[in-house]
Amino acid sequence: MRSKINVELIKSSPHDVVQPDVLVVCDEKKITEKNIQGVPDLVVEVLSPNTAIKDKRLLYEKVGIREYIIIDPTEQYVERYLPDEEGFYGIPDIFGPKEVVKLKAFEEIEIPLWEVFETEPPERE
Fold first, then answer.
1. What CA–CA distance (Å, rounded) separates 14 from 82?
2. Which of 99, 61, 60, 59 is nearest to 78 (CA)?
3. From the centroid of its chain, how far is CA 91?
4. Would you give the distance in Å from CA 63 to the centre of its chain?
5. Which has the closest alpha carbon to 18: 28, 10, 27, 8?
6. What distance in Å separates the CA atoms of residue 89 and residue 15, rounded to the nearest whole number?
7. How far apart are the first and last CA of the chain?
8. Where are the alpha helices (DSSP H) in 40-122?
């Protein structure tokens, strides 16, 4: 099992270090052997029944993360936060287990949530 990698959100302050479950960084200059230095393009956090996830939405909004996704495997839903024109996250998009999430940060990527939640796919019409 790999340990999580530290992400130093330099735009915020040198003390804001996070360890997202999944992240995508497009600027390879931010990637070092020790950690990620700067803001990722996409962050995904998975809620755990054993550990409460600290709500990092305001921090991620402040530093300008393009897409922030929270996955709740117990309740089987996904919340997606996207910044508006002024850089603020509004009301999240909510997706259920029979839906497909089309990433905004990477428009060519679609995630069928029935595969994430290991449930039956929706019936085709």
1. 24
2. 99
3. 15
4. 14
5. 8
6. 22
7. 41
8. 57-63, 113-116
Q: What is the mean pLDDT of each run of 10 residues along the chain (125 residues)?
A: 76 75 94 92 87 77 94 95 96 97 94 96 83
Quick one: pLDDT at residue 4?
Answer: 81
Structural tokens at position 94: 């909510």
Residue 78 one-letter amino acid = V
Cβ-based neighbour number of residue 85 at 10 Å: 5
The residues, ordered by sequence, that sit 6+ positions from 12 with a Cβ below 8 Å of its Cβ are 59, 62, 63
Q: Which of 125, 7, 102 is nearest to 60 (CA)?
A: 7
CA distance linking residue 113 with residue 98, whole number of Å: 6
